[in-house]
Amino acid sequence: MSAFALRVQRHPRLTTAEIGRAATLALHDELALTPKPGLVTLLDRGSHDDMDAHTFMRSLFSLRHYFVQIAEAGFAGAGFQVLERCGIAAEARMLAATGGVNTHRGAIFMIGLLCAAAGAAMRTDGEITHPDQLRSALRNHWGAALAIRCNRQPSLPGGIAARRHGLRGASKEAAFGFPVLFDVALPALTAALACGLTPRQARLEALFQIIAVLDDSNLAHRGGIAGLRDAQRMAREYLARGGVRQADGVEQAHAIADEFVAQRLSPGGSADTLAAACWITRVCGSP
């Protein structure tokens, strides 16, 4: 039996409002985690000069209704074009709130899709008790549209970097049912919690597991393919030494964070994936 199955607590039937609120809380879970290599925390800017925790909080406030709205759209059986329009409007609100700074574009896409999938699963299943329901709903309702989306010419920096370097960017991750989220991030997070690590330790461990394997297009955009591979190498080596379970695991994570900042690397896609894993534990059950 999986760690998730061992630790899950059954939830009563969720409302779309609760699904959306869980998304906002999960994004705050990610923001509050420290140390995070190259990423904004409540304490520092990471590798960014144009944003800090206050920028993120303004962004979160602007998005709180979006996640509810897109969950409602999923519950109503909306097509992919409806979800896209919701996301485009949410991005405009985010940019207005942050003065044009992109804080959560990836989360608008990824967690927005997951909220829609949760709404769809609620309609068909009545309740959500396992992550597989979310993955199935995503594939069944919008898998074909997401596959078509992968063929679009990218216009944003991350997508352009992914296409240039032959990486599996955000669109392909979604079309494949978010394999890094469901097969790496969520198992890492739930296993870490199941073995007694604190939420902070578990999230840090999961983040490094994600960085080690994800084709993070934000890393590729900021550091090229060499920067992406270097970031993955540092994460793999940290995990091979024992990760957060080492006596000085947090201190080592701080040192890696300093190296990311020195190289101006920021694993934004990994941060979105961690937030999505935190959201799933809130929606399906918290260990």
Describe the structure.
The protein has one domain: Triphosphoribosyl-dephospho-CoA protein. The protein is 72% helix and 0% strand. It has 13 helices and no strands. It has helices at residues 3-7, 16-32, 53-75, 80-98, 105-125, 131-149, 157-165, 170-175, 179-194, 199-213, 217-240, 249-263, 268-284. Helix 5 runs parallel beside helix 13 and helix 9 packs across helix 13. The longest helix is centred in the C-terminal third of the chain and has 24 residues, at 217-240. The model is unreliable at 1-10 (pLDDT under 50).
Brief sketch in words of this structure:
The protein has 13 helices and no strands.
Q: How are the SSEs placed, and which strands pair?
A:
Layout: H1 3-7, H2 16-32, H3 53-75, H4 80-98, H5 105-125, H6 131-149, H7 157-165, H8 170-175, H9 179-194, H10 199-213, H11 217-240, H12 249-263, H13 268-284
Helix pairs in contact: 2-3, 2-5, 2-13, 3-4, 3-5, 4-5, 5-6, 5-13, 7-11, 9-10, 9-13, 10-11, 10-13, 11-12
